[in-house]
Design brief:
Elements: H1 4-9, H2 11-21, H3 27-63, H4 69-100, E1 121-126, H5 139-145, E2 149-150, H6 151-158, E3 164-165, H7 168-186, E4 191-192, E5 198-199, H8 201-207, E6 219-220, E7 225-227, H9 232-236, E8 243-245, E9 251-260, E10 279-289, H10 294-312, E11 316-320, E12 332-340, E13 345-354, H11 358-363, E14 366-368, E15 376-377, E16 379-387, H12 388-398, E17 406-407, E18 421-422
Parallel strand pairs: 4-9, 8-14
Antiparallel strand pairs: 1-11, 2-3, 5-7, 6-7, 9-10, 10-16, 11-12, 12-13, 13-16, 14-15, 17-18
Helix pairs in contact: 3-4
Length: 425
Amino acid sequence: MLDLRYVRSNPDVVKTAIANKGEKAELDTLLRLDEELRALLGKAEELKAIRNTESERVAKLKKAGEDASEIIEKMRAVSAEIGSFDEEISELRANIHAQLITLPNIPHESVPVGRTEDENVVVRTWGEPGSLIESPVPHWEIGEELGLLDFARGTKIAGSNFPVFIGDGARLARAMIAFMLDVHTKEHGYTEVSPPFVANRDSMLGTGQLPKLEDDMYRCEGDDLFLIPTGEVPVTNLYRDDTLPESDLPVMRTAYTPCFRREAGSYGKDTRGLMRIHQFDKVEMVKFVVPETSYDELETLTANAEDILQRLGIPYQVKELCTGDLSFAAAKCYDIDVWAAGIGKWLEASSCSNFGDFQARRSGIRYKPAGGGKSTFVHTLNGSGVALPRTMVAILENYQTERGTVVIPEALRPYMDGREEIGAG
């Protein structure tokens, strides 16, 4: 959420951000409501000042034994008017908050301006796109041939785009999760948490999924809980309404969670195989930092995700997202795309974002400066470290052999009983 004082003082900046992000928000309505509120607050304060003055006068009259009934009657009318103003003020504040939470975060000045993903900027690459064999098949073919994936049974259980991982497919997924958590906790400095996989409205609002993305979420109506779309939601909300001492920062957390997304806007996009599914596993990294270091922390966060892919030997490219492809809540974001040789495409496997104080304002996450002074909002960051489906796609497609097997990346072999291939023997 943006600071209302900032919005009031910088309407043109906010309007530009709304336009550059391709968002819809009624900024003029918000500013009008804000003017009405300030005018009403002024009137209410004037009446309260009159009431205070007259109350003192009544007290003096009573002490002198004089009649104060006329003044008291007038003050009853003033109090009633103040009560009416207070009701209007409360309603206006609620309406202002409802408008304020629809304003997107303002992109950092370094973010390239653009409308679509075609205007994202590749900032670096690692590895050479390719595979072990000349003509690898798509992952859905090799996955079903080796008994790793069963799309038909997943559809029978839950509907389309809910795959079943079987045998070595399930084992590979478990190995990837354990490997990533071990690297992040033992080498990158994160502390592992295992959060709930559902979240309430306050949590979803805090990280910015609500109100905009409600149609893309799975909701448990009876409890008004949402299946989490990303581990970012519960992990960030660990510290909702908390004030952390500066000496504790940065706070770094990592978590494995399943993620659930209806993908309501994905109709017509490529949804075959593991490309775009409704339930998937992901290891998330979340940071709570002081504002002065947040953009350096973004670079480190992104490097942590890249380290996972380098250890897996998967070629990738890092893209800086343009304003039009930036999420509602992010101030700056890097996407990491892995190369999938069987389908010949780059696939997003990680998204690493700095939200500035946008989420912290919505969630009430502050820190107390070490040198004293007023508590202020932290900056929050998160990134996939990494998402499993498309990373698994890259492994299944890039590591195929002429024998129809799949080589297990060396980093995962300790988690697979030392085996070197899937499908051998």
